[in-house]
Amino acid sequence: MSANVLLTSSYDFTLPQELIATHPASPRDSAKLLVYNRNRDEITHSLFSNLEEFIPQNCAIIFNDTKVIKARLFGKKESGAKIELLINKALNAYDVNVYIRGKMKIGTKIFFGEESKDFDMNLVAEVKELHEDGSRIVNFYSSTPSSQAPAWELKEKLRFEEILPIIDKIGHVPLPPYIQREDNKEDESEYQSVFALKEGAVAAPTASLHFTQEQHKRVCSKFSHAFLTLHVGSGTFKPVECEIITNHPMHSEYYDISNEAKELLDSDMPILSVGTTSTRTIEFYTRNKALQKGEANIFLHPNNKPLRVNHLLTNFHLPKSTLLMLVASFVGLEKAQELYKIAIENRYRFYSYGDAMLIL
């Protein structure tokens, strides 16, 4: 591969289909762990259950406590045509950025849950704006069936937090597209970290998925730690399509840094960031310290290296993705290429339900 750190093609690689993990490791901490020590330029192959053996003793660990919502909804238009809608993120109390398959126009209404006898599950999305990137802005309403089905009568406009318990009943786990299967009951718990708390993500912070309750308690008892929240958006899966990576329009995601996390980040303790999501939040905050919450859109790559995060726990990511470029910001492009080649040779499982890598 090319060694030009700004060429998108430098971050491409061929992954055998069978190395794409379609189901999680069971138990969670039985996943493989590739440990790369930068000071010694040394690779160790281990298991995630052995993570504590490798974490430097004076380290503070930062976790992302976001919780994945059932963001994938199946409904139909007034014509009866079936529609799939994927929630991306809330822009404010009422406006929600979504992706909808098929042609849409402003004013289109999409109906969810009309087969249900549970009134609370009756929901309508109305398209308010169409964006060039393919996303749509919708408002959600409660509704009641009229005497002339399938038309529904709009009632109260719903705040984003009011739709969450409704979509928890009628929605589906938004598994990444590369998993290529429908979600099931297992995914409702497995595509969620054991410390998930604050609802809002449409993709899991995948490095966190390896922790069992027991291991997480063990790690937290041994190391200083704190939580922040970054609600992961669907843009995390979007490949870089322009030739030069710095021309890529980086997506933004809502974050909120707890006072405990702020205290650790403002200290001089070395930081182990659990996942690319925590890393993006920490590095955005480091560059904008007046902002303890807001929208983070930082793009880390070899020409924009981390300033605060010392160590990274992460999964193995998609070719040409900003996440792979983030890994390269820690180790350099050539080393990232080498580590991924070694991972493939050693049959590591890739992507959201795949194995993990610890960069020290």
Structure, described:
This protein is of the alpha+beta class and 360 residues long. It has a 9-stranded mixed sheet. It has a 6-stranded antiparallel beta barrel with strand order 5-6-7-10-9-8. Strands 4-12 form a two-stranded parallel ribbon. Helix 6 packs across helix 7. The chain is globular, with a radius of gyration of 21 Å. The protein has 2 domains: 238 residues, QueA-like; 100 residues, QueA-like (Thrombin, subunit H), CATH 2.40.10. The two termini are 25 Å apart.
Task: Name the descriptors.
360 residues; alpha+beta; QueA-like; Thrombin, subunit H; 2 domains; 6-stranded antiparallel barrel; 29% strand
Query: What number is the mean pLDDT?
Result: 92
CATH architectural type of the largest domain: 3-Layer(aba) Sandwich
Main β sheet profile:
9 strands, mixed
The proportion of residues forming helix, as a percent range, comes to 10-25%
CATH level 1 class label of the largest domain: Alpha Beta
Strand order of the largest sheet: 2-1-18-17-15-3-13-14-16
Radius of gyration: 21 Å
**Helix-strand topology string:** EEEEEEEEEEEHHEHEEHEHEEHHE
Number of strands: 18
Structural class by helix and strand composition: alpha+beta
Number of discrete domains = 2
Binned strand content: 25-35%
Give the terminus-to-terminus CA distance.
25 Å
How many helical elements? 7
For the record, what is the CATH homologous superfamily label of the largest domain? QueA-like
CATH overall fold name of the largest domain: QueA-like
Query: pLDDT under 50 segments (min length 5)?
Result: 116-121, 147-151
The 3D shape can be described as globular
